[in-house]
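Hi V.,

You were right to ask for the full record rather than a summary. Here it is.
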Amino acid sequence: MSSELRVDKIVPVDGVPTGGGGGIVQIVKGGSNSRLDRGNNTGTYYNTYVNATITPKFNTSKILIVGTGDVQAQNDTTGAVGFARGDTAGDGNVTNGTLLGVTSSAGIVNFRFTHTMENVPLTAMYLDSPGTTSATKYTVILARVSGANNILLPGNNNHNEFSIYLFEVSA
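Predicted structure:
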């Protein structure tokens, strides 16, 4: 015996919040354990191998982007992690995408290493409004902000995955 429940909508006990929405429509996951090593071009963001593509069901939806994993760097180096929407430059510098919440001197998450080859867990989040129902690619981006040493993501090449999660949130 099997059962099936179908509903058109679920309304919270206290009613729909002003402005409506807020439910998760879909979730997409991507990730990679291939490491990007950024040891040059301070202040330039580079695409990592960590990306995922989502096709929003509604053009009013928001996309909650969550990147999580570990980063590694050598001593006296500051780095930054953020996200880009729609960039197609592979693992090169972000050339034709939209940087989300970052500048050349600051990311969504900034970190400074004081010991040789520290490995640090990191989670970054950003809420985007792409305004489309077309397939949209999001990529974790990485920059060296200061210092002369390397920044690496993920920290443990070919072992630890750095992941990206895309949550479509109804508006």
